[in-house]
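Below is how a single chain appears once it has passed through the pipeline. First comes the sequence as given, then the structure the pipeline wrote out for it. We keep one example in the README because the format questions we get most often are answered faster by looking than by reading.
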Amino acid sequence: MTDRKPCKVCNFTRQKSYGLAVPSLEELKAKGGEFLGFSCEDSVTVVLEDDGTIVEDDAYFLCLPINTKFMLLHAKESWSPLRRMDGGTAWMARESVVIDTDAVDTSHVEEPWWDLAQQLKQDLASVILMSEDDLQSLVDARSTELAFALGFQEKKAEDLQETLQRVLDRREEERQSKELLQLYLKAADREGGQGEPSQASLEGSGGEDAGDEVDSVSGFMTRTLMVLKGKTSPETRLSTADLQMVVSKGAEVMSEVLGWDSARTSALLQACEAQLAERLQQVQAVQSIRSDT
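Resulting structure:
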């Protein structure tokens, strides 16, 4: 028997999961709780993730197979089974929790936007760094559920969604202005000989539904590559993390990834750098306002 048992831990929403190797149940609670962001003063209960069986002593812990997945619970959290719906997409039912705002039935199924809402709860300025898909998922969320996730009154959540929609609209306006300029330049180059360029030729062949798979060669998400290759003004559509990744790769690598010539690749990198700088300036401006107030 080895000194340490390889296993996995997750929180009660199953949104966070970590692998670790520990020699005992107490070490699992301590190290697993640290990974999941628990306070060292929290009382932690360990259960099996798949069926909720409580693990109370080292003898039972040590007899479990390696790579067993445990769920760590504290306070009023409780285990719930993983429910599958919508063609196999996993959702997690949350336990009802009492909050100070209007009473809300929190037995809702956890949505994909939940983690984004938690980011906003920590810092509203993080909206500047989100991709358009992220923003749209927050706009489409039910205001009552978003209010619960943020700890807001429902009216405040609705106001936030309206603000996020304005951010999306502004990005779309910027993109349409650039597309109009591209159409004009193409038409001028053709001098009326070949007719107007089609929208399809500008947008490329990328589909709307892109997967979350990571391309093994480039390291980019499939969705990110499709936006880069098939969308006009892709820099306005990407998250800040994606923009940073594009910039860090450099012109030579991105030229190979996208199959573009150096001029087109350099133009993309310049646009991504400008967009990244603009967003970071916006974040700094918000932080400056906060410090002044």
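DSSP finds ten helices and six strands in the chain.

See the next section for the split statistics.
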